[in-house]
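Final report, Chapter 2: Outcomes

The project's central promise was a pipeline that accepts a single protein chain and returns its three-dimensional structure in a standardized token representation, suitable for archiving and comparison. That pipeline is now operational. To close this chapter, we reproduce one record exactly as it appears in the project archive, with the input sequence first and the structure output second.
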Amino acid sequence: MKNILLILILFATTALPNVLSGQAVVFKIDTVSVSCAYTDTVKVPIKVKNFQAVGSFQFTVSWDTAHIKFLSTTTLNTLLQGAGVNFGFDISTFIHQNPAKITFNWTKVGGGSVPDETVLFYLVYKRLGGPFVPIQMVNSPVVVEVTNPLGDDIPHVTIPGGIKPLDSIKPTLSCPANVSLTVSIPSAVNNIAPSNISDNCAVSTVGWASTGATTANMPADPDASGFVFNFGVSTVTYTVTDVGGNTSSCSFKVTLEPSLTSDTLTLYAQNVGVSCGQNASINIAALNFDAMGSLQFSLKWDTSVIKFVNINGFNPALNLAPSNFGVSFTNSGVLSFNWTTSSLSGTTLPPGATLFTLNFTVSGASGSVSSIQFVDIP
């Protein structure tokens, strides 16, 4: 027993330095906070932690040039200079592109160590205004790499930072008055932009969303004018965000009533607006669906923008089933519908009633549009 216990103690004692030496070297870019109105020089430090027995390291730092202008770097910390040290900055090759980049490399014969939170150097910028600007390490054109004096890789961690504007005052905006229209089909509504948008520093984004009869989410669109709204009541909400991340919102209603001046059956696909990767549910609806005995049509869409998922939301008055739909060509953007009533007097639905709902996943690029068309094929 004594021999076994001694072996275990020796093993634990031998293994402990290896665990400690395996700690990752941390490169941290600080986040520097300034007043949102400040447009002058900002020094952003790059710090290290667990920097023990390091033989070499290199990295690339990157940032967006829209709101900050690179000025210079400060001199490398003297703790990382001296005999056997070679280091270099490249602050010219990649500095004029966006995102801009600088690279840095350092080696020391025999390795070197510095205390935790040591600042390697400062990145010096002129802030031009605008929102938070992230500054981060990336793996191009120079990969982030750390080695010991023998050239073996040492684990590393990078922590991004940036320049953050401070602002505690919310922006302001005004919404238009409620809108009511009588139209024959779902229609574009014009002149509904927000007004009196202001902020003590600067506005970052203005967007809008709609709930109710029309669903849409347009976080980067500052004006809903021209968007096609569905029959019924839609609540439109504008949201403005300033450079400090503060938000303010206002809402108004858009009401579209169907004008029943004709007895012609009208079929339409309701309009929706969503972001890429989200799901879109599109109602297929009708006006003047009076004493109908049968109905058939096909629908077509752009598969580069939306991908078919399924059909649901069957109107109970139609007694629909999956057999009413032809889904064999949905991968090509075509779906067929065929229905016959079970009532001798035909089936009647209220104006604007939904027949069924098509569900899609949005795959197109931002700003792309797919119409849902009624066609004669197949």
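Archive annotation: The two ends are 85 Å apart (CA to CA).
This record, like all others produced under the grant, will remain available to the consortium after the project formally closes.
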